[in-house]
Structure formats: structure tokens, C-alpha cells
Design goal:
Elements lengths: L2 H35 L8 H26 L32
The structure holds zinc ion (ZN).
The site of zinc ion has 8 residues, from loops.
């Protein structure tokens, strides 16, 4: 595959990953605000919403991490695209495994 093709394939891959992660982002945003604007000792239903918000927030984070781990893969070698620090680089310029350029 010529380099520009790899870059295009990578961009498709990224878009797919975020499309799949958008419900998790929504859960994260909704859960996070519910959690932030309520307290556990508030009268019902706000006290319950606090815990629900926390569960949604947590599920959203887990979901996003899981989705990215599933889909942030190099189109050339199929390995997870990582950064030097070991985390996921959200906008990598090249594959950390085979070194192919995504630009
Ligand atoms: Zn690679």
C-alpha cells in the first residue's frame, strides 16, 4: 500500500472508532453533569441521580477506552497504535510498531 493510502485508511479507522464511541461520550457527558450537579444526600430523585450519574460516567469512560482499544489499530500491521508513554495517542503521525506514516 502506498503511504497516502495508509493515511486514508487510518483516517477512516479513526472516524469509525469515534462514531462507535459517541454513545459512550454522551453517557460520559450526561453522567458527568448529573454527578456534578447533584449530591448523594439530596432529596429524591436527585440523590438517586447522583449515583446513576456516577455509573453512567464510569460506564462511558470504560466504553470509550474499550472502543479505542478495539479500533485504534494500524491499517498496515493491525497492531494497537500506541504512544511512547504507553497510552493511546489520539492523533498519531505514525505507527509505533511498524513506523508507517499516517500523514
Ligand atoms: Zn503499524
Amino acid at each position: 500500500m502506498p503511504l497516502s493510502e495508509v493515511g486514508k485508511a487510518w483516517r477512516r479507522q479513526q472516524r469509525k472508532a469515534w462514531r462507535k464511541a459517541r454513545w459512550c461520550l454522551l453517557a460520559l457527558a450526561l453522567g458527568g453533569s448529573a454527578y456534578a450537579f447533584t449530591a448523594p444526600d439530596d432529596a429524591r430523585p436527585w440523590g438517586d441521580l447522583h449515583y446513576l450519574g456516577f455509573v453512567l460516567l464510569f460506564a462511558g469512560i470504560v466504553g470509550i477506552v474499550f472502543t479505542l482499544l478495539m479500533h485504534y489499530r494500524c491499517p498496515e500491521c493491525g497492531k494497537l497504535v500506541g504512544s511512547a508513554t504507553g497510552g493511546i495517542d489520539l492523533a498519531p503521525r505514525e505507527c509505533s510498531h511498524c513506523g508507517v506514516s499516517f500523514l
